[in-house]
Each structure stands twice: as structure tokens, then as C-alpha cells.
Amino acid sequence: MSDAVLVAGGAGYIGSHVAKALDGAGYKPVVLDDLSAGKQDFVGWGPFYRAAVTDTSVVAQAVREHSIRAVIDLAGSIEVAESVRDPLKFYDNNASAKTSFLRTLSANGVTAFVFSSTAAVYGEPVTVPIPEDHPKQPKNPYGWTKLMFEQI
Questions:
Q1: pLDDT digits 0-9 by tens, 47-92
Q2: Is 142 a catalytic residue?
Q3: 5 by DSSP, 3-state: which?
């Protein structure tokens, strides 16, 4: 497997820390981010591609140029209150766009994919800490879109 890992959403707070950790562990982080929520100043490790996950030509180019076989996906809309105000944005960004992303990755030989989901897929917890087999009952579009993509 290549030592390059694509970090989608790598210019965000968590994504930048993931890229830093990958770099520290001897991997080459390759950051993909459209900067709609991330900051270019957060990109300090590896090459940077300014593009959305739906930009299939840029995604394919990054995968080919760096022989990427693994992806960590942190891209997406995350604000719960915004998901209630604008649910279609969340369904588009967190579910529809991601199917295109997966299709492009698969067509270009990516074999490992890590998706950053959320505890919001569980809704109101019945028990704490929440076990993996806890019923999934999202209470907002953010949680529903994350659960939808888990299923995909």
C-alpha cells in the first residue's frame, strides 16, 4: 500500500490534526478541501488540492499523482442547527456528494476508506457510554445524513 493518504476535509480543525498525525506516523497526507469551512492556514502537512469531493477530475488526479489507496473522509457539513434550517444542503453535501466521491475513489483504485461519522446518529442515548449496538435514532438532518452515508 502507498504511504500517501488522502484527507478529505483536511483544512478543517480535526482534518488538520489528522494530517499532522499521519505525517508524524510516517505517512504522506494529501489534503483535499474546498475551503468552504476549512482554512488554508491549517494545511501544514503534505500537498494540498483545493476542490470539493464532487470535483471528480481533481480527486482522480490527486489519487493518481500520489498512488493513494487509503482515504480518511472528514469533509462535510456539521452544524446541527444549520441542518434544521437548510436540510437539503446537508443531504446534498453529506450523502449525495459522497456517493460521487466513493465512485471516483473506487474507479481509481482506492481500497481503504475511513469515514468520520458522529454520535448524532444515535439520537438521545438510552445508555451512556453509548455502545456500538445502540439503536440509531437521529433527531436532526445532520444525524440522518451521517447515518445514510454509513449505510452507503
A1: 999 999 999 999 999 999 999 999 999 999 999 999 999 999 999 9
A2: yes
A3: strand
Q: How far apart are CA 89 and CA 112, in angstroms?
A: 27
User: Residues 27, 49, 122, 142: which is the catalytic one?
Assistant: 142
pTM over 0.85: yes
Contacts of 56 (CB under 8 A, 6+ apart): 100, 103, 104
What distance lies between CA 82 and its chain's CA centroid?
18
C-alpha cell of 86?
Answer: 437548510
Query: 146 to each of 6, 23, 94, 151, how far by Cα in Å?
Result: 20, 27, 7, 9
Please tell me the predicted confidence (pLDDT) of residue 70: 98
DSSP string, 99-121: HHHHHHHHHTT--EEEE---GGG
